[in-house]
Amino acid sequence: MHRIEKLRDNIERLKDSLTMDWNELAQLLTNEERTEVEEHLEWCLTEMTWCLTEMKTFSQRLKDRGPG
Fold first, then answer.
1. pTM for this model (two decimals)
2. Of residues 19, 42, 38, the one with CA closest to residue 30
3. Domain segments of the chain as ranges
4. Cα angle: 64, vertex 66, 68; to 5 degrees
5. Residue range 9-34: average pLDDT?
């Protein structure tokens, strides 16, 4: 479970990093391109968050079940 929480923290740091980089990159794009990239990035981050939640649930079920 600890690893999953670390991954979640890494995703949050990635989001912060991308926000900083994005502010510079966004100036080079048209409004339409910027919107498209933002929507895709949001989708990706949502999928990663969903995946981590599912992994945490699965891990907890295995832990609760015990060995063998």
1. 0.57
2. 38
3. 1-10+31-61
4. 145
5. 79
